[in-house]
Amino acid sequence: MTTLSLYDLDPAFLRAQSYDNASNMAGAYSGLQARIKEINPLANFVPCAAHSLNLVGTCAASACREACEFFDIIQNIYNFFTASTHRWSELKGTVKCLSATRWSARDDACHSLSKNWNNIVHALQKISNNRNEKPSTKCEAVGLLKKLNRLETVFMTIFWTNILDRVNKTSKKLQSVDIDLITVVELYQSLIHYVESLRNEDSFKILEDIAITKSGIKDYNDHNKRKRKRKIHIDENNDNEILFSERDYLIINTYYVILDKLSYELKKRKLAYDELVKNFFFFFKLHEITPAKVREDAEVLQKTYPNDLATCFVNECVQFQGHIKNIDVKLTTIQMLQFIREHDFTSVYPYVEVALRIFLCTPSTNCSAERSFSTLKRIKNYLRSTMAQDRCSALAVLAIEAEITTSLDYEKIINDFATSESRKKMF
After folding, report:
1. What is the DSSP track for 213-243?
2. For residue 104, is pLDDT > 80?
3. Where would you tag: which of 122, 128, 167, 245 has the fewest CB atoms within 10 A of its CB?
């Protein structure tokens, strides 16, 4: 509150707040958003949409044993080849590592593994058969090769490459500057539809055929697990006991488990945005709903923000609906606000303009802070542990704003700096 007062910011005008899902920020009882809502109940909390999507992927990646082992294989392959320049030279391609702070790194790693699959297998075979290699190196190469020569691993590579490609591209869209809450809801719903469309045996068969074609492996690995003995009660027998094949086991205990976890987490995260969009949703249906429905929904919104919207807001919405219906093109909320301002209709629809501003000013993501932490871990490493704060902040800004940094003319900057800092005396 002291900081808000210092910059002459009144919390009474706050209508939304957005943080990541960390408990100290998003906690419902003692988090920052809860403390602010105690001061102003109208300051609705919006979880960062990009961070929520990252958490969805994290939960799905740890949903079952096969998924955990798959990502361990990717990291072990990266560690193996990057541990030696000789091993890297044997690899005619690239491999990428995983990252705890950047979920998109997993998409890059899966794409790299899928694209360079044959090169990785060939390099591991060459290293394992090289008599000049250390026994420990050969054993490690043989172990990785054994894991790669499983149809389950090839299938998981194809499966996760497709899933993470959709998640990563959706995440990048969620981080765009002009994103709004309705777009967030639509993107989450589209991901839910995509995940649910995969949950059938036909989709599994398509991915399985791609995996078989890619690797040439046609049979699943027989784990040769010792059968677990279970005590048979007096009213039971072994006649009805079902034993799954390796293929059925992969479908039931891995494929469906991951998809169900993804679908559940996406729906759970989407609920938070549905609640926020609900009161403003009639603006998106002005071409379809009746004036009576507009009046009903507008009354609910006006009662939610009684200090911002007067009772005449309901009549404004009904008139605004008739105005919008005369336009052939369906407008988004930001286009509605631009339409009101460009045609100087603010005096006609003052409270409609206020309602649209409340909705459009509600933040849907705050991923810039997330990128700052991720960048800081890459910049301030153990070689720069004694770096001063000013230099660290300057390097972080250069890394975060990489697009601007790469477009600068460094020769001109160097010359200007040399001229301004020159201590050469002319005689």
Report:
1. HHH---S-----PPPPP-PPPTT--STT---
2. no
3. 245
